[in-house]
Amino acid sequence: MSITIAPGACFHCGLPNTEGAKYPVIIAGQTHNMCCPGCQAVAQAIVDNGLQNYYDFRTEPAAKGDSALDNTLSKLAVYDEPELQDEFVYDDGNQNQIQLTVEGITCAACGWLIEKQLAKLPGVKQVSVNVSARRASVSWDASAVKLSAILSRLKSIGYESLPFQSDTHEASYKKEYKTYLKKLGLAGIMTMQVMMLAMGQYFDILGNIDEDAVAYFNAVSLLLTTPVVLYSGSVFYIGAVKAIQARTVNMDVPVTIAILATYIAGLFAVNNNGGEVYFESICMFIFFLLISRFLEHRSRHKASQISANMHKLIPATAYKLENNEWVSVLAKLVNKGDVVMVKAGESVPVDGHILEGKSTFDESMLTGEFNPVTKSNSDMVYAGSLNQQGTVIIKVSAGVKHAMMTQILRLQEMAMANKPHVAAVADALSRYFVSAVLFIALATYLYWNNQGNEDAFWYSISVLVATCPCALGLATPSALTCAMAKLNKLGVLLKRADALEQLTVTSDIVFDKTGTLTQGKFSISKQWLKPAYIENSHNGNIEEAELHVLAIAKLIESHSEHPIALAFDHGETISDLLVSDVNIDIGKGISAIVAGQQCKIGTANYATSTLSETDSKNAYGANVLLSINEEIIAAFWLSDTLHKDAKEIVNKLKGNDLTILSGDLQINVEAVANNVGISNAVGEKSPEGKLNYIKQLQQEGKRVLMLGDGINDAPVLAAADVSIAVGNASDLAKNAADIVLLNPKLNALVDLLKMAKLTKRKIKQNIAWALSYNVLVLPFAVMGLLTPWQAALGMSLSSIIVVYNSTRLLR
User: 125 and 141 in contact (C-beta within 8 Å)?
Assistant: First the structure.
């Protein structure tokens, strides 16, 4: 509910306004007066960034703006407002995280520059730049540095930034797209005109063009080339200046030197009416380079659009229950515990559990599986999924900012913080290569100039143009972005980008059994009650004893998230049974005080320390045993069913050493292993035992891929070289894993492994091509056998080939 500002007070800060209508701001079509330039600047910034809803939902007046602040800093200060940060900033309890849209990113060196500059700010914990998506993920300590200071630092090095929103990000892309078109169009038109004038001189076979005509043609060419150099080529100069300010070099540096040196030399030649001019080479160089940048820009957008469009699946409004009435409110204002209604044909606005109703939901945006899922009471539904049939009432479990889809996209971006080794090598190689190119170009000039060759200058220009490492800088990020976008579409979430590289070198694949190879839907196929318990506690009444035992088991297991607990969910509920002191020992069982007695349910070794030979024989093969005061009273045989695609998936993975690692009885693990065709079955392992098994494999030099879904799998998922949380995994397992399969089916695993190998192959192809081209063309440029325009054409084609090769991953 918005606050009410007193008449005559500043609309922004609520303090008395002594300036009258001197500082007006139009908000939502109405003019409101502010008390000072600072409040006016901040309020205008809120409106300009499309955040005027802030004034509709604020509960306190904003802080008074500093009228002495620079206008730019005042605009950035608006993002320090807590109400606005609630929408953009994710607080995990230790630090804040935000996704920023950054304008002006042109290459991998830009990402490197941003990361280095922001890392210098006190309180900034982590910075990762996704060059392809033009986004930056920043984690910082809010007590040490403000968000406005982070945005200000970005602006100081030439990058405009604002919190990521799909709409504003799309607008930013379109703005940059139009700018590229204008620059590219101007360069293309002028290149054609300058080439026509140059061709007249190249093919003057009869020698009829006199010196005055040549001078005239050159002067016209200079006039046509000037806007291309000053406007179309400005993107390269800005990038070079940013790099030099940061005391480094990027690929824009040799490009800038080549363009400006050639242009200035031509300018002097025209003024002195003598000397070589290469205006057509300048125009062609800029034109071809802009084409490759433009195509790269489009391919980056196409790749990032797959993830960004997921934001748009979450509706802007929701029907919330307020005072026994359904009221339409902004979805971002719905909180945990609220009740919302979703009608047929509408998208679910928030994550929650169904209270009333039954319907089918399309969750393909999360899982990649297009078959509708039927859900009813107590089932979980997710923001962005489409309600296809009936009306349902949902109790909200997480607001929009904490919804699964939002978390997925945030983790997807944070994945780029961990660059694969090959990416780090390529980035470093690109910077060293630029330095080498500059050195070789200088050496070329000095050598030919010492030889008295009048074309020494042009030879060095050809070296700069031909060996510009644009393609090398694009090799890794373009492939990674396309791969992650494709996997996202298949329902695979990467939490760290270097996991793809790790997947290509794994030797062993280790599966958890329950919930991974099996569906995790248990039922009691057989049970045994101790005759002495039936006789002593229930006077020989077997039915009464069975009901009482199942009631105890249900009461204790209701405190567990393990799939086995669901097998006891159908037992009777006895109100007289009181439970206390519940203790869950992961991978072993649960203990509790029930009706004043110590009860344990779990493995045989956990349920009792003294198992008689008779009891051991009667309970042989049972999954779960129940004891009261250390005495076994019941045993349960639980059955589970395999995933339908488990055998097929295992057959496709036969090239690796496959193992089932489980806490279940060895006999049950072996049964599943024989069923799916896995020779190595390891059962009866506690979480510590599983962890030791994985470490043993690693000590033997093996690279382990672990798949699991339960709480007890978290330690081994964290310890494995690369880990995957499968299907409906627990939150702890998802947090520990490097990759999350959102689809409960295992077929995504095969797609993931194929994509990992294909991505590594594409990166190697890109780097090999970029390096081979530069090494091959360098001798020709040094020897003067390559003209500047030929060098420009070859360099641009090299970059285009790399980008095209990467986009093939999206198919």
Answer: yes
